[in-house]
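Quick start: what a row looks like.
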Amino acid sequence: MMSNLFSIFDPSTNLLNISLNWISTILGLMFLPYNFWLMPNRHFIMWNFILNKLHNEFKTLLKNNYSYGSTFIFISLFSFILFNYFLGLFPYIFTSTSHLTISLSLSLPLWLSFMMYGWINNTQHMFIHMIPQGTPYILMPFMVLIETISNIIRPGTLAVRLTANMIAGHLLMTLLSSTGPNMSYYMIMILIMIQILLMILESAVAIIQSYVITILSTLYSSEVN
């Protein structure tokens, strides 16, 4: 039962023994509004408004670490995660963000680049960050250990957060839909309403999780300078 349940996340489309499911990762590019129209459409205006809001917020979080274009990588990360979350809600589209392969590929390089930049260019600041101000001398070794572990597990927590939220919603909808054939007509109508509400909830989760992961990455970046 459990193996059949989790099989919905297995790549199954292939051509010449090459898995084509991962192509869905870049399908989000098709939803980006194009700006070559003489009059911008509402889709372009709405997306441009969202990007400007994100840019202003990330600029505030980065503080002294801000430079022109430095928010671009975090806006791109938000867009990538959001589009993949939404695409995963459609039937017959492979959910790439439900695999740690994609999640770790996003979080690990970012974390490594932040750590390398901080320890190479701001070594003293990184050491100071290991011990909060006002820490008793007897607790300093423990604080260094705790802060070290906290820094090391950051890419793992980001990846698991991204993967677990997608898997949880998909599993819940799969479990509910599998009970449909054994239900009466009226119960099926109730089940459909519940599934619609779950889809709305998953859409909200997609936006919230994309925002939270991007904000955390921005905060990690601001800590190394």
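That is the whole record. The longest strand covers residues 14-15. Residues 120 and 126 are 10 Å apart (CA to CA).
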